[in-house]
Design brief:
Blueprint (H helix, E strand, L loop, with lengths): L10 H13 L4 H15 L11 H11 L8 H5 L1
């Protein structure tokens, strides 16, 4: 049995998500169903939700500003 629902989401994120999902061969509705199934399976959100610590915030800022140490994909794989 299916149920219909209405949700409000950020327009820009919604548009970008639909483009990505189309590339993956999924509709937005299918992706929401997958997400719902993962919530049920995990008995909660299927990822960790927390406020980042100061070290993580600093690393995020450095990455955003293209600062700090970087490695190539090959170096990362090692």
């Amino acid at each position: 049995m299916k149920t219909q629902t209405t949700i409000r989401v950020d327009q820009n994120n919604y548009t970008q998500a639909k483009i990505i999902l189309k590339y993956l061969g999924l509709s937005y509705s299918q992706a929401v169903n997958i997400f719902n199934s993962m919530i049920v399976s995990a008995k909660g959100l299927p990822f960790e939700v927390k406020i980042p610590n100061n070290e993580t915030v600093q690393a995020m800022e450095e990455a955003k500003n293209l600062e700090g140490d970087f490695v190539t994909l090959d170096e990362f794989k090692k």
